[in-house]
């Protein structure tokens, strides 16, 4: 039997897609298997493999792949760029999964700018930068297409200056386009430099409110891989069926702890991806889908979906204190995720505080000024008063630095939501910033 691929019918913001196939159907790679219903926000879903449909449920489609897959695919049929983007089923690949056609559906009438988020904000993840190093022309071409679609007067590629090879590759591409309206903006190596409003603040000098959209600054912010998939849809008529991703952590052999995979077929299982990376070590604490800051716990049977950017096998959990306090930052793990980690540490949560800049917005929280910390002393002291013997935090780089300025003086050890992932790849923990 061939490998089974699973395609959840909801992999994005908006309505669930509706199946176009039934059990027993034979499908080819690139064939539409679930469609976005008319007048609904959503995204089409295509098979990333050729094979036979083995099950269609209310929530997903299972396809048993044929042996000997190739890279060919059934092409899209639309002719106009925005229609191709919609038909392709492209969504935001920075994590949220907002349908891209909807983001690009209102062209600028004035001086608009498209900003490519190439910050690769989360630690450990490296696939966006590697893709730029391998094929910078695709990113630039995708940005040009996007600018044309929304009638933008200029484009900006926002990228951390530590990624010198990728920056140089982009500079060389733009040198061959002397009349280009695209520029490169270099970012500091801080988390969360890739947050949408942080990108706008750094590139345009405008700090938007927590409920404001980039359009209020005359901007559209779009993920680097999303732009590359736009290029494929428009120039190659390729549906969104493959995903770039990072696989890292507690792998067998420990010789290559962070690996990048290009064009992974959507629907492949988490376990299969770890096998491609050499196999999971026998001892790991949890499996994370996403990055160390905002990723969610997963398991080997879950499928890779459109928004999957990383898979990390984290280090085993240490024994935590009997009582712990949690400090929630809008830029990192939420309250539920910290409670999950605390339970794995064997600790009872005795208090919960939020960073003073973490403002409620609908069913989540957003930071008033991402990456710029107002200080956390009062919050840490409140957790100490609640009986915490240590604190577990999800704070950004700057906030974590301020926690470290007070917690040790209060004799409170600090745990961070990223610790397990960073220890698994031997990277520096998020604590005090060294000058």
What would you say this structure looks like, in words?
The chain is globular. It folds into four domains: 4-65, RNA polymerase II/Efflux pump adaptor protein, barrel-sandwich hybrid domain (OB fold (Dihydrolipoamide Acetyltransferase, E2P), Beta Barrel); 81-235, Rossmann fold (3-Layer(aba) Sandwich), CATH 3.40.50.11540; 243-313, Ubiquitin-like (UB roll), CATH 3.10.20; 323-424, 3-Layer(aba) Sandwich (Rossmann fold), CATH 3.40.50.2300. Helices cover 25% and strands 24% of the residues. By secondary structure, it is α/β, with parallel strands linked by helices. The strands form six sheets. The protein has a five-stranded mixed sheet with strand order 13-12-16-14-15, with helices on both faces.
Labels describing this entry:
single chain; 435 residues; alpha/beta; OB fold (Dihydrolipoamide Acetyltransferase, E2P); Rossmann fold; Ubiquitin-like (UB roll); 4-stranded antiparallel sheet
Q: What's the gist of this structure?
A:
The chain is an alpha/beta fold and 435 residues long.
Major sheet: order of its strands?
Answer: 13-12-16-14-15
**Strand portion:** 15-25%
Q: Low-confidence runs (pLDDT<50, min 5 residues)?
A: none
CATH topology title of the largest domain = Rossmann fold
Mean pLDDT, all residues: 95
Oligomer: single chain
Query: Given the helix and strand composition, which structural class is it?
Result: alpha/beta
Q: Which percent range fits the helix content?
A: 10-25%
Described by strand count, sense and barrel closure, the largest sheet is: 5 strands, mixed
**End-to-end C-alpha gap:** 57 Å
